[in-house]
Amino acid sequence: MSPQALAGVFGALAALVLAIGVAFAAAGAWLVLPFAGLEALALGAAFFLYARHAADCERIELEPGRVAIEVTEGGRTARYELHGARVSLEHGRLVLRAAKEEQEIGRYLGAEARAELAAELEKKLIRG
Length: 128
Fold this sequence. Notes:
Blueprint: H1 3-26, H2 32-53, E1 57-63, E2 66-73, E3 76-83, E4 86-90, E5 93-97, E6 102-105, H3 111-127
Antiparallel strand pairs: 1-2, 2-3, 4-5, 5-6
C-alpha cells in the first residue's frame, strides 16, 4: 500500500474516532472526547512508526571480486563494500565475511528465503 493511501486510511480513521467523540460529547458524555483525541494521537504515532520503517531494505550489488551492500533502515542509508567476500550461514544469520570485516544481510527474509539467498550468492561469488 502506498504512503498516500495509508495517510488516507489514517485520516479517515482519525476523523471517524473524533466524530464519534464529538457525537458523544454533544449527547452529554463529554469525557469521551478527550479519550477519542488520545486514540487519534495513538493512531498517528502508530502510523508514523510504521511509515518510518516501511521502506527499510537491503540492496546487494555483485561485481567481480567485490560486493556492495546498501542498508536502509528508518530513513538512514549505509553503504558497505567487501572485497573477496565469502558467504556464511550460521545460526540462522546470513553473513558476508571479508578479510577484516563482516556484514549481516537478509534480515528481512524468512529462514528459508535466507538459505536460498545464501546459496545463490555463493554460486555468484564463486563464478565471479
